[in-house]
Specification:
heterodimer, A: 261 residues, alpha/beta, Glutaconate Coenzyme A-transferase, 10-stranded mixed beta sheet, 3-stranded mixed beta sheet, 8 helices, B: 293 residues, 2 domains, 10 helices, 15 strands
């Protein structure tokens, strides 16, 4: 059936993968750009009962009514179900009502901790990054976490330079020890593969590689020091159906976020 | 009711001395009081301690202009493009002056202000436990829940000297209606010693009375009202204007170098007398993009 599905870009594939991780009825803590598109795609296809919460205090159950660059742009408030204080949106999160949350970072380590604060040591950072925003809060309290990032070697490290958004800390049992609620899974969706970590294992396994990728090469290009020999025969990531792709393209008609250019 | 209407310049001169702890940009990317920040720059305020969650590019501008000694925030950058170059220069190289960064998450900023608003020394949370944010400064202290013994993080109260909010409408006494996403605006105005309300529209008190549920805070708690239409540009204001992404992109390109930032500052801040001149310059098509969407 080669050629039966239209070719999609890497970013479209990432958005489709992220959307699949959203279950119908989920309360989703949404970020901007690809995560926002993933939420919009999920509610437009398989998860019509999902709702999206934004840290600025907005909740909505439909795609934004027009292009948005930030979560506070009027099209993200128009037609929303709720708009108010950050403490109310984040209260849902802290209270354990959020099923899945998106977080991002410049670095991620093999225990799924993320860094959005600095590259290099505290006293002399090579790069000062913007910081947590709500990322730390989402990582602390959402039941499942989704991370979408480019597959670049420098991002995958044994230990993050700064633990901005905690995943599994230094391994199994860490979250309970420091007082954090359990986190069922962290799914890492990159430009080349899908990886998943769970509390029990505390580190990642390779779930699937995107079409055309060699699993062994992907593993080598993820140099965070795999604790165990990773599975070398993962699945191939399923591309989105023509229908899903059409829906996604309608959500980003100018390919602002999903073009590979 | 008292008339608290002042010009932006008067409000800054009277209520925001050097060294003030200033909370602004409290609704994350919306309703950012850029007009207020630009007046701080024109009045050459120094040693400010900036407080906010994600204040979009306004903290980057104040840091680049040398107004800030401390920034206490969850995120500092330019939401449209990513990194804030002025913030990076200050945090990485101490340019134009050294900057103390006190890290937070969005929720801990909210809790720190809420604690102050409630008149208590701290509020507890589970958020940020186990993160390096929790060990970043003396605003966090691990504690045990007095009832269950569960580990918690105490977030120290943060009392701003001044909180500045840009609202859709207010009367001359400072009774202020705000709507849309409010971020930590409510917590900040409750916590601050002095509140400056910047109003898109100046209305009669009857308009406030007609919808009291929209009141962010009553005038009794407000020190000054500034009528400044367009004061949030390029940030959006629900019901009035959208997000001007082109302006944020222009700012990002310009601020990538110190010289570029100085030129940007000269053109858009130091080279204009006030916000109405800034808006006039936008309207003259002196920059790409439609600034008045």
């Amino acid at each position: 059936m080669a050629g039966a599905e239209p070719a999609c870009t890497r970013r479209e594939l990432m958005v489709a993968c992220a959307a699949r991780e959203i279950r119908d009825g989920d309360v989703v803590f949404v970020g901007m750009r690809l995560p926002l598109l993933a939420f919009a795609l999920a509610v437009s296809t398989h998860a019509p009962e999902a709702v999206g919460v934004f840290e600025n205090g907005v909740m909505r159950d439909t795609p934004p009514r027009g292009p948005v660059v930030t979560m506070s742009d009027p099209p993200n408030l128009d037609g929303a179900l709720w708009a108010g204080a950050l403490s109310r949106a984040m209260g849902l999160l802290a209270g354990g009502h959020v099923d899945v949350g998106f977080i991002g970072g410049a670095q991620i380590d093999r225990h799924a901790n993320l860094n959005t604060t600095r590259i290099g040591p505290a006293e002399a950072p090579a790069v000062r990054l913007p910081g947590s925003g709500g990322g730390c809060d989402i990582a602390c309290a959402a039941r499942r976490l989704l991370v979408v990032m480019a597959h670049e070697q420098r991002r995958f490290v044994a230990r993050v330079d700064h633990r901005t958004s905690p995943g599994y800390g230094d391994g199994p049992g860490w979250r309970a020890r420091v007082g954090l609620p359990a986190c069922e899974s962290v799914t890492l969706i990159t430009t080349r593969a899908v990886l998943r970590a769970a509390e029990t294992g505390g580190s990642f396994e390779l779930v699937s590689v995107h079409p055309g990728e060699d699993a062994a090469v992907v593993v080598d290009d993820t140099p965070w020091g795999w604790p165990d020999p990773p599975v070398r025969a993962p699945a191939v990531t399923l591309p989105p159906s023509a229908e899903v792709l059409q829906t996604l393209r309608a959500l980003d008609p100018d390919r602002v976020w999903t073009g590979d250019g | 009711m008292p008339d608290k209407l002042l010009s932006m310049r008067e409000a800054v001169e009277r209520f925001v001395p050097d060294g003030s702890r200033v909370a602004c940009g409290l609704a994350l990317e919306a309703a950012i009081p850029f007009a207020f920040a630009h007046e701080l720059i024109r009045r050459r305020r120094r040693d400010l301690h900036l407080v906010g969650p994600i204040a979009d590019a306004v903290f980057d501008q104040l840091i680049g202009a040398g107004c800030a000694a401390v920034v206490e925030a969850a995120w500092v950058g330019n939401v449209t493009t990513g990194s804030g170059y002025c913030f990076r220069r200050a945090a990485e190289r101490g340019r134009p002056r050294p900057l103390t960064v006190r890290q937070h998450s969005n929720l801990t900023v909210s809790l720190a202000l809420q604690a102050a608003a409630a008149g208590v020394g701290f509020l507890p949370t589970r958020s940020a436990l186990g993160s390096d944010i929790a060990g970043d400064h003396d605003g966090f202290q691990p504690i045990a829940c007095p009832f269950s013994g569960q580990p918690l993080l105490a977030v120290r109260a943060l009392w701003p000297d001044v909180a500045v909010v840009h609202v859709q409408r207010a009367d001359r006494a400072g009774n202020a209606h705000a709507w849309g996403n409010l971020g930590v605006s409510q917590e900040a105005v409750g916590a601050a010693a002095t509140v400056i309300v910047v109003a898109e529209e100046l209305v009669e008190t009857e308009s406030i009375r007609a919808r009291p549920e929209l009141t962010l805070l009553p005038g009794a708690l407000v020190a000054a009202v500034v009528h400044e239409p367009g004061g949030t540009h390029p940030a959006p204001l629900q019901g009035f204007r959208g997000h001007d992404a082109a302006a944020y992109r222009d700012y990002a390109s310009a601020s990538a170098t110190e010289d570029g930032f100085r030129a940007w500052l000269e053109r858009w801040v130091l080279g204009v007398a006030d916000r109405s001149e800034y808006l006039g310059r936008l309207g003259d098509g002196q920059r790409p993009g439609d600034g008045r969407r």
